[in-house]
Amino acid sequence: MSETALSIGVIIGNRDFFPDSLVEKARIEIIDIFTKLNLKPILLDTNETKLGGVETYQDSLKCAELFKKHSGELVGILVLLPNFGDERGVADTLKLADLDVPVLIQAYPDELSKMNVANRRDSWCGKISICNNLYQYGIKYSLTSQHVSHPSDPIFHKDLNDFVAVCRVVRGLKNIRIGAIGARPGAFNTVRYSEKILQRNGITVVTADLSEILGKANKLTKDDTSVKEHLDKINAYAPKGRTPDEAMIQIAKLDVVLNDFVAEHSLDATAIQCWTSLQQNFGCNVCTSMSIMSENMLPSACEVDVTGTLSMYAMQLASGSPSALVDWNNNYADDSDKCVLFHCGNWAKSFIPDIEISNAPILGTTVGVENTFGALDGRTPAMPLTYGRISTDDPKGIIKAYIGEGELTDDPLNTFGNRAVAKIEDLQGLMNYVCRNGFEHHVVMNASKSADILEEALGNYMGWDIFKHQVQS
């Protein structure tokens, strides 16, 4: 089994007047499926309880103790119901373990040809009873896409993989450390956020003055080994285009200091004051370093957009692929369901296969184009799209988010920077929601279809206020 295999606790429910053979078989089946899906099962041995199932309070004590022993590695719990199951046994186990992790409830289907006493499961009914008890206990749980499904069914495999993604999101967001480097640009009230609300939700923000970063970078020289190593890394990451050698040295020096800061504070993500102080005081853009970090699953957002990079991290956890912070930027001709996504640009290389280090023409009009090298140029081709935004609503004292899915298209787009064309059904309705609910002009995109995973993780388990955009049929 791979070292990266995530650990999932397994509760196999049993009830005394249903056939025990179903429990025995279920245990073998789920271990085999976990192996195929690269998951590590944490479950009772057959000599600890009857066939390794959970039925009595004593069984619950043993199973809960096992889960506590592995609490550092368990990301979620699967409740398996090969028969009706004992509702109290399952609920008591979860209550006693007190792990506060996502829980998925599965129930086996009955076969019409096996409805006799020796083979009848009644799991359809048992699942309802289990959920009723968990609701009474105040334990949050997830459901499979079909009320009953056999573990060998591909539908259940997808449900289980999606559940594991939910577990990743929940675990990751409860422990994330975000570096806020520099002050919010004065003209960007839109990226204000509440650090206290984030902390209440387990999200830690580590701050640094931009002068500290630039001061350390200015002490480096082109002959320093670290600068040479980072320059080689940057040249291997993207073609330099017309970027002068002097600018490449500045970009590399900044990259050294940023990476040291991330390592020193064990950060999972960063939000950086990218303009205009950097250009005026250091003579380059930080976009290339941000792109490299995002590509390496350490998402980085510009304009000190802390909740923007939080959104990037959540989508990354859900999909297993990099995210990018973008502007809802332009209409696309007269197509009401399409728009242009843009930044000047710091997107991960996954989104811009024609990547090139360049400058930022718009920013250059005020600070001088020669001071903006380090921005990236590239067009995103057609790919799946999940979009969304997490934000703190300070007047209400809550965290809120909107999410949805669409497509990135190959429609013609003749402009500069990092750019893409998005197609989203009822885009006008979505923009209406964004504007009426005070969301930022920044949104996050991810090349996946993971809105359902995010809705479950952020809404059900994190308890945030979630809006999922979808066209009403």
From TrEMBL:
Annotated signal sequence range: none
GO terms under biological process: fucose metabolic process
Domain L-fucose isomerase C-terminal: 341-466
Keywords tagged on the record: Carbohydrate metabolism, Isomerase
Residue ranges the record marks as coiled coil: none
GO molecular function: L-fucose isomerase activity
SUPFAM superfamilies cross-referenced by the UniProt entry: FucI/AraA N-terminal and middle domains
Pfam families: Fucose_iso_C
InterPro entries: Fuc_isomerase_C (IPR015888), Fucose_isomerase_N/cen_sf (IPR009015)
Gene Ontology CC terms: cytoplasm
Name of protein: Fucose isomerase
Organism: Portibacter lacus
